[in-house]
Structures are given as C-alpha cells and as structure tokens.
User: Fold these one by one.
Assistant:
Number 1:
Amino acid sequence: MPRESVTSLKQENQALKDQLDALFKEVKSLKDKCKNEGTTQVSGDNSSIKAANVESERSLQFLSDEYDDLTAANSDVLVQLKQITRRLQELSNQVERVSNAIDEFENYSYQYNVKIIGLPGSASESALDTSSLCVNLFRQMGAEVTLQDIDIAHRVLTRRESDGPKPVICKFVRRLAKGKVMEVRKQAAEVNPTSIGLSADTELRRVRIFDYLTPKKQKLLFEAKKLKERDHYRFCWAKNSVIYLKKDEGSRAIKITDVDCLQRLAGNLIS
C-alpha cells in the first residue's frame, strides 16, 4: 500500500473518530436533558397535586394521567437513545479495528527502514545517488549489502536548516540486510569520507543510524525518554521498532508497547 494511501486512510479514520466523539456527546446531552426534564416534571407535578387535592379529586386524576404520559414519553426517548448509543459503540469498535490494522501495516512496513542523520550530501542528489551513498557507507562500516538490497533512499526535510544535513530514510528490500547494517551501526562515525565518495574534509563523526519508527512509535519513544529523565532510568532505546527502558546495567529491560505501560511504570514508582 503506497504511503499516500496510508496517510489518506489515517486522515479519514481520524475524521470518523471525531464525528463519533461529537455524536456521543450529543447523545449524552440528550440523555441528561431527558432525565432533568423528568425530575423537574416530578417536582412540578407534586406541587400541582397538592393544590389539586384542595380543589377536587378529578383534577388530581387529570394531573396524574398527564404525568404518566410524560414519563412514558421520556422513557421511550431514553430507550431509543440507548439503542443509538449501542449502535454508535459498535461503529466506534469498527473504527478502532481499522486504526489497529493501519498501525500493524505501518509497523510492518517501517521494520525495513533506517534513519541516518548527519550524513552530508549534495543539493542535486538523486534517489539513486542517495542509495549509492548509503550502500558505500554500509560497506565501509562492515555490512555486506548491495544496491539490490535497497528499495529506495531519500532525504527528508529538517525543522531548521541549521540542523545540518537532511536526514536520510533508507528502505531495505530484506530485513536481513537491514539487520547487517544495524549490527555495525556504531562504526558509521569512523568511516573515512573519501572511501564513500565524499571530500576529505567532510565531517562524519556525527553520523548516526537508527530504526525509523512510525509516527505513533516516535511519540511513544518521546514519552518514554521523558519518563527516563524524570524517574532516573539510565537507558531508553528502540530496537526492531520496539521501545525499551532499563533502570541500570544490572536490571532487566522493560518493553514499552503503549502509553499505558508508561503510566503503570510511573504509578508503581509513585506507590
């Protein structure tokens, strides 16, 4: 599935979620209104009934019948609202299943990608040029990969031009090829620039290679790093699209799958 199609599907799904949230709020507002009107009607009828007792038994019966009719009408509305709420919940569950399917597809697709930061290039660099540069870098790092192992490599925009060279997103054809690169990724900063076709004065000491995470995983990693600093964890990292926290050298790594995991960790520390 093309990236544009996934993005479009995510936007449409989010729009459906927003509509569902609005409908849930409207239904709740109607329910509250019906309940409030029922309570008000009871209070008002009781006052009227006391007055009617003074006047006549016939007026009392009339007011009682009117109250029963109003109560029955409100009861019917509440039943219908409950039915609508149930149908909305079913639709909400379907939307959530689509969201999960999109997440699964993105997680699978992103497993083939790495992000390279700090790698200089030229302004007129083509996708083929970038792919070739990546292969040269990987081979000099010690990973035996070829151009046929690369699906595509391209530069992405940075927030500020002062952030340095544009990062490279490199997508592999095989996860085995990506694995070879990730095993020696720490060697990237040690590569001689002339060996990969760059000038001798090119700076490569800041080159870093990471797993390229989905937007959802990037946000989760950001939150995990905040928890790391706040609660004094020593390590926080991502490997094969999975995020981990580790208290110190001797402790076990904690897999972070969602925000709930982080909240449970924070809660355990507080308690």
Number 2:
Amino acid sequence: MKKGDPLVEARGLGRSFGSKRILDGVSLDLRAGEVTGFVGANGAGKTTAIHVMLGLVRGEGHTLFLGRPLYAHGAPGTVVGAVLGGVAGHPRHRLRAHLRMVAAGSAVPDGRVDELLETVGLTGAARLRLGELSLGMAQRAGIAQALLGDPPVLVLDEPANGLDPHSVRWLREFLRGQAALGRAVLVSSHLLGEMQQLADRVVVLSRGRVVAQASMAEVMERAAARRAVTLEAPDLPLLARALGDGGGRLTPTGEQSAIVTGLDRVRVGTLALEAGVPLYWLHEERASLEDFYLGIAEEEFTIS
C-alpha cells in the first residue's frame, strides 16, 4: 500500500432514532499514511458514524475495509483497531493479564503484549489493575489493545477528552508516528486547536451531514481568506478608498480603528503606504481550523 491509498471507504452512512435523523448520507475515505480529523460539535453524529462504520450499530450505507466489508475479514482485529473510550475490561484485572487475554482471543502471541506496553510507555504499569489506571494511562492501554493485531487502520473516538497537556502531546506525536508507518488513522474530536496540529485531512460533520472535506492545507487557505486585519489610522475614508481599489473592504469600528477583509496585512500596509496614510496599528490573526469550522457552521445554519 502506498501513501494516499484509500484503506477505508464509507458511503452513504445513515442512522435514525425514531423520527430523529442522526446521520444523513455520510461518506468519507481513510487513506494510508494520513491522519483524518473527524470534527464537529458534540451531538453532531461523530460517534454514531464511527459505530456504523465499524458495524457496532445498524445503519444505512456500507463501509469497505481494504476493499471488503469488515465482517468478510476472518480476523477483523488485524484490519482495524478501535479506541472508543480507554480500555474496556474488568476493573480488577491487571493490565498485562487483560491484554494477554484479548491477544489470545485473536491468536496474537504474548510477546506482542509486552512489545506494545513498551511502545505506549506502560511497561511500568503492567501490573496495575485497570481500575487503578489514570485517564491518560487508560487511553494508552486502549491504544495498545487496538494495535494487538497490527491493523493498518486505527480509529479513535474523542481520545483527548480529559487528558492533561502532557498526555495530549504524547497522543499527538504517537498518532503522527502511526500514520508515518503507513496506517490510516481516524480521530474524532471537537478540540479544534489540537486537531489542527494533528490531522492531514479534515472531515466536518454538522447535524449528521458532512459539510466539508479538505486537506489541512486547503483548510488553512480557506480560513486565511476569512480572517480580518485590524488597524488604526488617522484618515479612514482615504484608506478605505485605497484598499477598495485593491480589492479589500474597510469597516470602521471606531474614530480611527477599522477591520479590513479581503486583503492580508502585507497588502494593507503596502496600499496604505502608497496612499500616504500612516498606520498606528496593524494586526492579522493567524488562520486556524477554528476559523474554517466557524465559517462552515455559519454557512450551514444560513442555508438550512
């Protein structure tokens, strides 16, 4: 498999609870060597979509893993590993024993357990009971369990929830490393700042529908087009004409302050200099995934 090859193809996923439509025609691909960020507000349908993809709940549409439905694979754990909230098991079971039990069910040798405990940094916690694990340790244990069968696809649902900054950083670097190994990684989250640092591609879900799919580079480009430049200058009318001729729009926010859209700060500064208008203040916010998401959300609610 080459980087960019689609390992998972989900098409037309749908799900209703009574008369309420939870998912409506959700389609997405997960590609080898990439982290796909599945973003949306709480209640947007991310978890339901993941459950339908994995066959944990019934729904409409279909999902192919390596070209076949998951049930058609003799050992699903060697195709996809899922972390849906830490590690699931009896709280009194010790971590190593629990992972060995899960491994035995998938014909995975015990040596793989110790290898993964070292990989996720839990060798020293191997004898702890599951109920004694911290939230961050439980997430690492869940990842180790998901990787027992060495699957090419890894799916994580809100893995950073409640984690401290150190654990979040570890998670980000670990998942980037898994993608570098050629795995297709799907991470759902509503933490947009973290997703901006992690994902190669973004799928935006709103009210059960995919409203945007793009690479992170495209996201940043679209977000940059929406960002505004703030400034202070003594002659706003003259500056407004100069910027208007250059394709921008100046909106006063005070006697000498304004917001400019349609131009970046370099172009604003250049046009102001050419017009002979001094600038007392010039500032431009960096583009962010949050800007992109909020812009998409505004469009979604406007057209609905």
